[in-house]
Design a protein that fits this description.
With 729 residues, this protein is of the alpha/beta class. 40% of the residues lie in helices and 17% in strands. It has an 8-stranded mixed sheet with strand order 3-4-2-1-5-6-7-8, sandwiched between helices.
Length: 729
């Protein structure tokens, strides 16, 4: 894969229920129109000549409750487009609102995946808030522009839920709404381009956000596949020309609908959406059920997602489907209302629209607010007139296509009147039908969407490069890149302790820096220290140390990357497992010979004490930790410092994490240290180097393989190790 001939674009939609063949739209709340959108976008962008590769990146799921396709790591969509699946948070399906704690792991897996590629993406494009977070972090890692498409936004959802009587506590429990809104604010601040489907999104939805300014919005309506959603009168529908698969599909739909209707010859009103309170399905049923004229002349068909057993569905979906059945009973709609359990999107839905059009029916989207309304343009492309809410995307669609009537969806009588106006006026029906077919072809093709999107990307990429250059860190006449960009083509890593390892002899230290500068394109280097970040920076100033590529601080509990010292959130999240600092402090304060260090010595994931160099004292600390099940570890160094760390944290474990995340082979990683708190990194997977001035605590490591004890001290020992392991010649 070579991007010399075009752009490499990565699209992100995290929830995982995405597949190229027969996408399961309506299966649950995660499988709405966004699935169709990102699939079509990926394939359409890949068809453009200036694009070399498009990845649609999502979560890998291996769960007996979903299809096996969701567990395939890479699924081709076309010659230049593919679905890439990365595991995080285990392998079971998890609805997107519960994925927030696992997104840093997803980012780590994405970085690891990209380190295996021949090129890095030119654009990271996040869809929905969780994917926006992932794309934003990768954008910072690789110095490439961030593009964001929200699809729906948290502040709007919160307002609607409050209006529906939801409590703040319930919103947090079900939707993690506070986290979502905070992430959306951050993504908007960092995005180079925000793509919306309508102007209404910009004004009424993004306008609620503090970071929505800056003119970075671009209205680019999504498209549809016009070869799939063709008009009901197309010559291909001649019975003699239909292939067996299409005939079978049509017969399956007809049989399913006729199973519900006592008079199937009537035109029908069609709704197709997820079972969600905001979709207002019960409002449509009330509109139909309370209008005797409509009930007399037309049937109603509501395809509300895919279901097998209502009892085991999510609370929101269960409530909607239960209300549908209650409304059906309330208005005695047996023989008039069809509510099939499932539909096959790729084959059945286009035929469903065409059957509705053939019977002179109407498509209704009764949602209280609709950010866009992809089903509206699909139905219109097939020739079905539409009735839709006057809030959101339908306003633009009807304005462009003149293909239906907008209503206040909170008023069932308005919905009923609009449907009646179309059904009872043959001229109006024909006008809306023809206008919809023509309008969709003019305004809503994927070809048009992709070309406009690429024009917008062309505009932001020079600006992004200029912004990066103007704010870049320059050292020794060389622009310092982001860590992700810095790694291109480099497979060697050097990590050294600062005190008494790197520092101690100025002459040899400056010689080491000269060697590292000469091998800038061959070796990435960093420090691993017990110092906090602030104290590490003080040491760099005091000893004229250039900025390293990586800083592992506070005994391995914090990882930072140059040039902007961006903290590795994935590592922080990883080591937080079972870490309870308040409980640890409360327990250890009962030990009389432990003295807590000053506040500046404490960190979020490191509690530091002074301890006399006495084996019995240290043994007692270990005993208390074990007896009280504190889920932490004690690191003793330099005969006086005791650091309490999370179980998953240490210098060595931090280095192992970096090797895994950025795919460094252990044989190409060298670590150098001098004291006891360096022991676990020296005995890890990498090649160890002990400088000649080491503490006696390390004498026991002489028996270990893969550790070289240099006779030279301080940085001279590091240089000796680089030569010994063949890192430099």
């Amino acid at each position: 894969m070579d991007n010399s001939g075009g752009l490499y674009i990565q699209l992100f939609s995290i929830h995982g229920l995405i597949r190229g063949n027969r996408p399961e739209l309506g299966r649950d709340a995660d499988t709405g129109g966004q699935v169709k959108y990102v699939l079509e976008l990926a394939k359409s962008l890949a068809e453009q000549e200036q694009v070399a590769q498009v990845d649609l990146v999502t979560r890998l799921i291996q769960d007996k409750n979903v299809g096996p396709e969701y567990g395939v790591p890479v699924e081709p969509l076309s010659d230049k487009a593919r679905i890439v699946r990365l595991q995080c948070g285990g392998k079971k399906y998890i609805r997107k609102e519960l994925l927030w704690p696992h997104l840093d792991e997803f980012i780590d897996k994405a970085v690891r995946f990209l380190r295996k590629q021949e090129m890095y993406p030119d654009i990271f494009h996040g869809h929905y808030a969780d994917a926006g977070y992932v794309a934003a972090e990768l954008s910072a890692t690789f110095d490439t522009p961030l593009v964001y498409t929200g699809h729906s936004l948290g502040r709007n959802k919160k307002a609607k839920l409050l209006a529906d009587g939801f409590s703040e506590a319930n919103m947090e429990r079900l939707y993690k709404i506070g986290k979502r809104i905070d992430v959306e604010e951050d993504v908007l601040k960092r995005a180079a381009l925000v793509i919306t489907s309508t102007q209404q999104e910009i004004e009424k939805q993004y306008g609620l956000y503090d970071n929505a300014g800056g003119g970075r919005f671009r209205v680019i309506p999504p498209g549809i596949d016009l070869e799939t959603f063709y008009p009901y009168y197309d010559p291909l529908l001649d019975e003699s020309m239909l292939n067996d698969d299409v005939k079978q599909t049509r017969m399956t739909i007809i049989q399913e609908l006729h199973r519900f209707w006592s008079k199937p010859e009537k035109p029908f009103i069609l709704a197709l959406c997820r079972p969600d309170q905001r979709k207002n399905i019960t409002g449509l049923i009330e509109a139909y059920g309370s209008n005797q004229q409509l009930r007399a002349v037309a049937n109603l068909a509501v395809f509300a997602g895919i279901r097998s057993n209502i009892k085991i569905m999510e609370e929101n979906e269960k409530a909607v489907l239960t209300d549908m059945l209650l409304e059906m009973d309330r208005y005695d709609l047996y023989g008039k209302l069809a509510i099939p359990k499932r539909h096959e999107f790729a084959t059945e839905v286009p035929e469903l629209y065409r059957l509705c059009a053939e019977g002179k029916g109407v498509f209704v989207n009764p949602a209280l607010v609709e950010p866009f309304g992809i089903t509206l343009i699909e139905a219109s492309a097939c020739g079905v007139p539409i009735v839709a809410t006057n809030d959101g995307g339908p306003v633009d669609i009807v304005s462009n296509c003149r293909n239906g009537i907008l209503v206040d969806a909170t008023q069932p009588t308005e919905i009923a009147q609009a449907v009646s106006d179309i059904l009872f006026d043959e001229h109006k029906w024909e006008t809306f039908s023809n206008n919809g077919i023509k309008g969709v072809r003019n305004y809503y093709s994927w070809q048009s969407h992709s070309k406009t999107t690429l024009q917008a990307l062309d505009e932001i990429m020079p600006a992004a490069r200029q912004t990066h250059t103007s704010s870049a860190h320059v050292e020794n006449g060389r622009e310092k890149q982001s860590f992700g960009q810095r790694l291109k083509g480099i497979d060697k890593l050097l990590i050294v302790d600062i005190d008494n390892t790197l520092v101690g002899d100025d002459s040899s230290m400056q010689e080491l820096f000269q060697i590292l500068d000469e091998h800038h394109d061959d070796i990435v280097w960093g420090v691993a220290t017990g110092r906090s970040l602030e104290l590490m920076l003080d040491a760099m100033t005091d000893y004229s140390i250039p900025m390293p590529d990586i800083a592992i601080c506070s005994v391995g509990t914090e990882i930072y990357y140059a040039p902007d010292l961006r903290r590795d959130k994935g590592w922080k999240n990883h080591i937080s497992f079972r870490w309870k600092p308040d409980k640890i402090k409360e327990t250890l304060e009962t030990i009389p010979f432990l003295n807590l260090q000053k506040e500046e010595g404490q960190r979020s994931h490191k509690i530091s004490y002074f301890l006399a160099d006495d084996y019995d004292y240290l043994a007692w600390v270990h005993y208390v930790i074990e007896q009280e099940d504190l889920q932490c570890q004690a690191i003793f160094s330099h005969g006086q410092f005791l650091d309490i760390l999370p179980l998953r944290a240490s210098k060595g474990k931090a280095i192992d994490y970096i090797m895994y995340k950025y795919k460094f082979s252990p044989r190409n990683v060298m670590v150098a240290g001098d004291s006891g708190n360096d022991a676990d990194m020296l005995t890890g997977k990498a090649r160890g180097l002990v400088v000649g001035n080491y503490s006696q605590e390390l004498e026991k490591l002489r028996e270990k393989q893969n550790i070289y004890f240099s006779r030279k001290e301080y940085s001279a020992g590091i240089i000796d190790g680089l030569n010994h392991y063949g890192f430099v010649r």
